[in-house]
């Protein structure tokens, strides 16, 4: 009983984590009720900021706790797992078949996109027990995956990209497999501010800035794809060595 009473629920880091969760829940509502993918996109961006700030605040205020760790994963399950799955589900419902396949076949297949949520949970659970992911990631991080899918949804809403049902299924499966893949993805955790040891990170940030300047419409999608490609090439090169 004494131990239970010492658990602090309403700390600043926990409130930031709950803000992350609420932003993800709101993104789901705006998606399913209003098909407002742009609003959902910015809500996920806000959630990602809260996700960064909760850990930063916990370290700054020395309020790290096992409760905070569990709460963070539960919030991320909703924001970066369920929300992007619902977005792809909604896009699928409003899309058509490229090959004009009968709805009797294509309609039940829409539930395949829900594996995004399932594999996101697997990714988060793996991260919680994997001690090798302190300086780099194994598989695509769930926030990056969510931004990848939400940026696609934003482009669909703006009319810059057309997605057919077959393509959505392929994207959902590919994104899910990337989440649990063994590919080592570099983290943007700098070893000081010097160039030495941070060449890849500084190079990636410069490339990301160039994409934002020259292709702003597609920049978020391009940055995430670049991150995946660079990480994969680096991982293959390291394995070959």
TL;DR?
With 241 residues, the chain is mostly helical. The protein is built from ten helices and two strands; from the N terminus they run H-H-H-H-H-H-E-H-H-E-H-H. It is globular.
Explain how this protein is built:
- This protein has 241 residues and is mainly α.
- It folds into two domains: 2-134 and 143-182, Four Helix Bundle (Hemerythrin (Met), subunit A) (Up-down Bundle), CATH 1.20.120; 185-241.
- The chain is 70% helix and 2% strand.
- The protein has a two-stranded antiparallel sheet with strand order 1-2.
- Helix 3 runs antiparallel to helix 7 (142-158).
- The radius of gyration is 19 Å and the shape is globular.
- The termini are far apart.
């Amino acid at each position: 009983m004494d131990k239970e009473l010492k658990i602090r629920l309403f700390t600043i880091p926990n409130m930031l984590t709950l803000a992350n969760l609420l932003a993800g829940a709101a993104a789901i509502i705006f998606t399913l009720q209003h098909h407002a993918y742009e609003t959902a996109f910015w809500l996920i961006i806000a959630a990602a900021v809260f996700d960064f700030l909760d850990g930063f605040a916990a370290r700054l205020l020395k309020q790290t706790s096992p409760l905070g760790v569990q709460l963070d994963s539960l919030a991320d399950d909703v924001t970066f797992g369920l929300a992007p799955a619902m977005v792809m589900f909604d896009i699928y419902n409003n899309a058509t078949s490229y090959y004009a396949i009968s709805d009797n076949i294509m309609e039940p297949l829409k539930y395949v996109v829900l594996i995004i949520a399932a594999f996101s949970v697997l990714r988060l659970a793996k991260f919680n027990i994997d001690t090798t992911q302190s300086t780099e990631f194994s598989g695509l991080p769930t926030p990056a995956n969510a931004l990848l899918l939400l940026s696609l949804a934003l482009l669909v809403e703006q009319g810059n990209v057309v997605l057919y049902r077959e393509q959505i299924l392929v994207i959902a499966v590919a994104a899910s497999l990337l989440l649990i893949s063994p590919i080592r993805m570099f983290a943007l955790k700098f070893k000081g501010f010097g160039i030495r040891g941070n060449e890849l990170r500084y190079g990636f940030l410069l490339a990301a800035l160039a994409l934002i300047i020259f292709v702003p419409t597609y920049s978020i999608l391009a940055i995430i794809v670049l991150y995946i490609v660079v990480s994969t090439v680096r991982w293959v090169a390291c394995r070959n060595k």
